[in-house]
Amino acid sequence: MDNVVKFFLFLLLVLQLGTSESFAGDPGFAIYRSHGYLWAHRKTMLPMEAPTRGLDLNVYFMTQQGKQNWTRQYRSPRLGICFTYLNLGNPEISGEAFGILPYAEFKIIDRPRQEFNVRVSSGLGYLTRIWDLETNLLNKAVGSHLNANMRLHLAYHWMIHPKIELSAVFGITHFSNANYKMPNLGLNSVEAGIGLGYHLHGKPKDSKAYVPDTATMKGRHEIRFSGASKVTGLVYSRRIYVSELSYRYSFWGGPKLRLHGGVDFFHDRGFLYRDNPANVTERPGIKNSFETGFVLGNEFLLGSLHILTEGGMYAYSPGWSKGMLYQRLGFKYEIGRNWAASITLKTHFARADYIEWGISYTILQQ
Question: Cα–Cα 20 to 30 A to 89, which of 26, 112, 121, 244?
Fold first, then answer.
């Protein structure tokens, strides 16, 4: 639970630090009504399948008048916060969900009176009903009230008045505690909705010329240290603390994107409890507690705030129950020229492993 709260506070901080100059004006408000379906992505979740209903209140800012170059590079995205409510369709098993999600909305098609965008949101969610051994055995999806809340939507906007727009959205909303407490299969609601928005000053026009960013930062050598926490399971559950050391080399960079490769070293004692969780007979050592893997990834550059995605392959692991491949998705915020803080979710495809809290230092730049 503490990890999820810290995740949300960190996200709010980096959103404010990374985009504050872009919030100079042009605010808007919107309300959305949606209907969807709670998707049982595992057979054990079939009793939870049900229609969902949602209500969103969005407060956003248009960045056409923004002062940062990255808003020009991404065609003046909308930046805002969504306050969301979801009725998950089964009051005794799934209950209701509430969320606060900072978001960025990037344009795919932009016309004077129409926009077709992709909206990426990430924040904090609260679920009223969770798994309980005595009162709610059928909820096999979540074990904590507080969860990370993520959303990916396609959005269509049509200006019917200089200050009023109609909108339609379609996408998916996800809740997960990133293995901080079991069970953690996560909840997915696939939904579609319509909305009505109001621009306080009307839809602004781009007025600032784009200034190319020549600081591509090619040839960065970066060292990162990260820590994480997870639990081993529902039965004989134990909390495991994971530490990581990573190296990254950025071999190509541009104003929007940076590509890198590197290596990870993991210290994870969770393997000791895999076969006999009640009574560990082995002492921790290199053979049963360390992993290493090679990664390729990219960073989408939004000023000082970066969206980080990576794919990795284990070169050595004490056990291959998690598979050979792993992934990362998260945020990184540059603090000055050399330091950066990051928060990322490490997964094995659809299965979360844990949330990583990292600090990195660039030791050489060309």
Answer: 121
